[in-house]
Amino acid sequence: MAAGRKRVGVLISGRGSNMVSLAEAALASDYPAQIALVLSNIPDVAGLDRARGFGIATATVDHRAFGKDREAFERAMDEVLRVNQIDLVVLAGFMRILTPWFVTRWEGRMINIHPSLLPLFKGTHTHRQALEAGVAEHGCSVHFVVPELDAGPVILQAKVPVLPGDDEDKLAQRVLAEEHKLYPAALAEVASGRARLEGGVVIRG
To answer: May I ask which residue range the UniProt record assigns to the signal sequence (predicted)?
Structure first.
């Protein structure tokens, strides 16, 4: 691995399609990050096998083992990230809402991708929301994670047209194709220092 590359931990809960796009981007010698760890909160998901196919270290911290103690679960995750010397955390289909403790600990060093043009359509079922709203454009956003859900400052966005005859599945597929290009680009911005979080806004340069 090239010197100076940021060590990235990717948190997943499923198949890890966005993780794969990041791992493929990181194969390039001039990419400013290496995917050093893929961590799942659910054992034996497909994304862990896909990560191993890239030679990436994997770990599981099963949230069910901690009952309703979300912070205890996150402290266990944080320990795994620390042991693996992770610099940046990337959420890629990680289906747990994080507590302020964890978000604050990784402030400015944790990013997420959301399938809408934030601040539009926060939460779930974003493609349904977009269709019901009758918007002409939809898309995806990569943002820094803050305690409020889907409210962090946006790093990059990609747009897709909403076409006649679109249903949720068709629109979701078109957005996902853009996610797979947008997330590696946004991670490169953060890992290289070209985009950083200062005072609640994204500073560039």
So the answer is: none
CATH fourth-level superfamily of 6-193: Formyl transferase, N-terminal domain (3.40.50.170)
180 is catalytic: no
Give binding residues for (6R)-10-formyltetrahydrofolate as ranges. Answer: 70, 95-98, 112
d(CA 97, CA 75): 14
Write down the pTM of the prediction: 0.95
Annotated binding site: which residue ranges? 16-18, 70, 95-98, 112
Q: Whose CA is closest to 141, among 165, 120, 162, 171? A: 120
Region for residue 64 given its phi and psi (left: phi exceeds 0; alpha: psi -120 to 50; beta: otherwise): alpha
Name 121's Cβ contacts closer than 8 Å, sequence gap at least 6.
129, 130, 133
> Which two three-digit tokens encode residue 158?
């990609």
Q: Each residue of 56-80: pLDDT tens digit?
A: 999 999 999 999 999 999 999 999 9
Q: Tell me which of 114, 127, 138, 143 is the catalytic residue.
A: 114
How many CA within 13 A on the CB side of residue 147? 6
Instruction: Tell me the CA end-to-end span of the chain in Å, nearest whole number.
Output: 25
Do the Cβ atoms of 182 and 25 come closer than 8 Å?
no
